[in-house]
Amino acid sequence: MSVFGGDSWGREAHHRKRRVDDLLLDAAGDHSSYRKLSSGKYACLLCPHNPVLDTPLILSMHSKSKRHLAAESKLKQREEERQNEMNKRIALSLDSTSMNKTSNTFTKQAILASKPLTEKTQKATFEVLHSSYPAQGTAVSSQSISPVSENAPYDSSHLTNASFGQMEATCCDVQVPLDYRERRERELKFTAAGWKRDCHGGWFRDENVEFDSDEEDPNECLLNGILLLRHYESIDLPTLVIQHRCSHYVNE
Amino acid sequence: MYLYNLTLQQATGIVCAINGSFSGGNKSQEIVVARGKVLELLRPDENGKIQTILSVDVFGAIRSLAQFRLTGAQKDYIVVGSDSGRIVILDYNKEKNVFDKIHQETFGKSGSRRIVPGQYLAIDPKGRAVMIGACEKQKLVYVLNRDTAARLTISSPLEAHKSHTITYSIAGVDCGFDNPIFAAIELDYSEADQDSTGQAANEAQKHLTFYELDLGLNHVSRKWSEQVDNGANMLVTVPGGGDGPSGVLVCAENFVIYKNQGHPDVRAVIPRRADLPAERGVLIVSATMHKQKSMFFFLLQTEYGDVFKVTLDHDNERVTELKIKYFDTIPVSSAMCVMKLGFLFAASEFGNHALYQFQAIGADPDVESSSATLMETDEGFQPVFFKPRGLKNLVRIDQVESLMPIMDMKVVNLFEEETPQIFTLCGRGPRSSLRILRPGLAISEMAVSQLPGVPSAVWTVKKNVTDEFDAFIVVSFANATLVLSIGETVEEVSDSGFLDTTPSLAVSQIGDDSLMQVHPSGIRHIREDGRVNEWRTPGKRTIVKVGSNRLQVVVALSGGEIIYFEVDMTGQLMEVEKNEMSGDVACLDIAPVPEGRQRSRFLAVGSYDNTIRILSLDPDDCMQVLSLQSVSSPPESLLFLEVQASVGGEDGADHPASLFLNAGLQSGVLFRTVVDMVTGQLSDARSRFLGLRAPKLFSILVRGRRAMLCLSSRPWLGYVHQGHFLLTPLSYETLEFAASFSSDQCAEGVVAVAGDALRVFTIERLGETFNETAIPLRYTPRKFVFHPKRKLLVTIESDQGAFPAELRESAKKECFEAAGQGENGKMEIENGGDDEDKDDPLSDEQYGYPKAESDKWVSCIRVLDPKSTETTCLLELQDNEAAFSICTVNFHDKEYGTLLAVGTAKGLQFWPKRSLTAGYIHIYRFVKDGKSLELLHKTQVDGVPLALCQFQGRLLAGIGSILRLYDLGKKKLLRKCENKLFPNTINSIHTYRDRIYVGDIQESFHYCKYRRDENQLYVFADDSVPRWLTAAYHVDFDTMAGADKFGNIYFVRLPQDVSDEIEEDPTGGKIKWEQGKLNGAPNKVEEIVQFHVGDVVTCMQKASLIPGGTECVMYGTVMGSLGALLAFSSRDDVDFFSHLEMHMRQEHPPLCGRDHMAYRSSYFPVKDVIDGDLCEQYPTLPLDAQRKIADELDRTPAEILKKLEEVRNKIV
User: Fold this and answer.
1) How far is CA B418 from CA B414, B691, B731, in A?
2) CB 3.0–4.6 Å: which of B19, B772, B859, B1042 could bond B882 by disulfide?
């Protein structure tokens, strides 16, 4: 070990030093908080920037520093939070599967769990819709619920009038010519072709986009599709939605 | 990702060329050419073919070359001006075939800079001093001298600087043995720089300045300065000191002027072509001087390709007349070299270089222009006209192929061959072409003759061991043998002594002068005097395999018995030994008899139990097994190949003699091991898959050395070239059996059988990786695409400043009629046809197109069938339109199928300001099975569409700085969506799934996404480095490869987490609202690979050149080189090669003085790329240096060579 070779105090001194190092390392805290690098230096794993420290002595000093302690406590806190969240979600998922058969994915439920108002609204909407079927439908009371949940996820972004119309159509008509995806696809085609929607759900042409002379008008062909589906229905779609909402609040 | 860069084909363009006697002696004349970063020594051989003697990658940009000779010496030295900030003097070492660095003097910073010398070199004609100049300010003069040991010495530099001065050209002035003088054309801009009104700039005047080196005072001074024409661009030294009047020729726009101190100007007009527009001048672009004992003349070439011979009438120091005579017209060259042997080497600016032979030197006295007939009128000097004619004084005897510049390249297996073909668009203007490159050596077929049946084997034999040429070709059929004698003609003979009623197993010349035929039932030994000795096989056993050399024969009988014969002193074939093998013998071979020995010691026997045994043939341990090698499948053919010891020389580096055993296995693998010359132990095994058939191995002669021909599903040639053992495919059909062939018509040929034909061919251009087929095109090709289904190719070509085809044709017709030639030749549009028309007296390829104004464009769209090389449709664009981009597009739910989109610009001008009348996107429909095009409609756009790409059933176009999405409408394209936020000009678009990778001409890549629900294009990531993009290629979902105009290749990758984030953002709200960073997109791509190629890369593609091999990124450059970047698959290889590269950098610094690491990091630090070109210089190191490096790497030199070979074989 000695640079000069032979028996010298160097080797012994080195051993002693290593022993001290080991002791110091023990003092530096548990082994998961640092890593010994191949260069013989130490990297702190707790601090956000993983500082590299030259000797165990400095590592031990570092582990007593204010910054390190702050990072440590922060880390602990985060870990705790994560554990809590996991517990909560597991509990919720057990809960929701037993309660709500039409649950979406686990994650979505979990997200909603933290948003009680949204959840409440959604539950209410669901109930309203269910309760409204027998009133409107003529011979569909035996319809199962499952296709609804499949075709119309209760994501708030999809809570458009179109999906309501769609949902209704599914319930009302036995043969469904346009399912949700197909319909969405057709809509996308029109948006990609340069059509835009106004706040009433009508379509208009984007002035920056060019159109062919014989281009299809979505106002006609999409609406026609809906009308075809709802041939017995004469109420406009938006009004229908309002009606539903009203009834829901009345019920409440 | 770590990459290995390997140049597959060296640059083919030439930047500068000099000639001289570099190997010493008066007789030999060589040419040294600089091909960008490669220095090459060429020599025309006795047949007038240019041979490459030496090619060295110098890892630096060579900017100028000059040669000088010390007084009284027989040998020329080479001075190199490069971007290294150093002047380097090289000496060609004939014995070792290397350039030796004699001197390397540092004077400045590295890099091609304004004021660091290196751009210009001038030599004192007596070889006493050299001047090296920069574009601006600095000029240094070095005094060259000899020390007592007659070695060349170089002084410290003497400064001849003048600040605020631009230098245009420098030359040495021949003033005999007076103090050396250098002349320079200079422009002083100090006043113009100060004067903001611009008046001084208008009045700035070029001067011719003489700098005198005072050898006594060791000092350089400005001796004389005089105004010259502002169009002056070049100086040519005029012989002096008794040989001529001294002074210089100043080449200026329209004039050649003789100038000297104290001498009035002698001026003559350069004749101009009659069809040249009046506003265009005539400039000299290359010049050469030829001096004989009694006379001297100059050859000057104009920018239109016309070569003029300039002579000076002088009496002593007084020049009385300067005469200019039209000499010939050859393609515009970057350098011309007149050689003493009567050759003119013209290094073309673009396209193939040519070697001409002088038929005459234009000695008749009538001249086009002379200083005596110079007419000055009110408007200036009267122009002189001439009419170009066919070659009269020169005749072309050879050409050297050049791909420069490669404009576009695609690698695809269109012809369904074993390996893909590389399609390149090359050249410029009328000399442009489509070249199809195939990996492999070119062959030239000498003869093909049908035989009466299907032959199984062929041999050639000499009658006597001392004969130069072969005497017989023996062909074996299933049940007969045919003997053909070689003479003036090849004809069948029956008196040769060979048994012709049986098939043959081997035929060879044996002993000194007898022949041997081995057939299944015996050995027939035919003595010189016609006596025949026959040895019969015992019992009913038949001979199955034979191995023989000049003195030994081994036959294997069915059942596995081996019988060994030797030729004794009297020439008798005597049985020596028998040996029973365990099973049937699959193949046999005997090593050639070593020089000065009686017998070879080794017999190799391959068995069907997947083993190869080496047996001893020594009398004391005969038939002892010396070593055993097991292989992966039964061997089919064996061949010993002896590589003779070499200490450099013409072809190769140092290596000791070694013996290789090659085995062709039934699995199609060629297995190669080294045989220890003493013990017979096998080591250093290498294997390589050659094809689907078991390779049959034959020994042939290539350049006087033993080489190996392997016949698998295609033929391969294994040979030693410049120190490397190369195994290269031949571009020829499948062969069954082959033998070397030598006759007086064909010294080193191969005779082979395939099907029922006998073929004789020679192998050409050894050392090259590719062979090419060229199809001429009409204008400078820009881009091309493949018709996806029909195997057709659509190119766009465009040229500036030329007339459209009809105008050219009519003008030409008029011209011919005026000349009274009438319509004798074929009047079809040349270059539209298949080959250059030899009868055409003025082919455009040679003479160039007539020049039009610079704002005139001509362009065409061509559909080409590469298989038949036939153009099936050629649309010439009208009205000054030029095509710039092309793509095929399938519009969704539209009835037309595949359409062709072409982006064009009308009236594009670059100067004084970039402007255009309009841009268009043409949509064409393929008709007649895709062979023809029909215009559907064209849509006007407000910029040049430089990039087009299909995207989700629509067309994406980059129009100026706008990215636009188009749908197909009835009358035009319908603009559906656009993004105007790109910084400069979009010049490349690639798409993958819903991502769009846009390349900006100055600002590298932008990653975009198209959102259908909002009908918007978002840029979500871009590069933080402003790269001037010249080529782009999509590597994977997150990675793009690009090249910039400074000669760098780089890969950028979107970090994985960012990529995931983008993909998992369902609403796209994040991309939309995220804050931009560094004036760009919110996310930045990371540079993962960076490498300075040293040449502008114009095209890139991912491809594999070997069947079933890993893909590599191939690139083509302006200088006409092809390279590949191979990704390493193991960490060990990376470590090994990076260490090898590191040692090579230390042990073998580049020749021109540029540091290798600095060169590869010229613009950005090199990252994760190992330079294979440097690693491959390892075999050229001296043996001890090789060993030293190998020791450092804990390997043997052979292992390193094997590694290098392996990685090369992975690429090509």
Assistant:
1) 11, 9, 11
2) B859
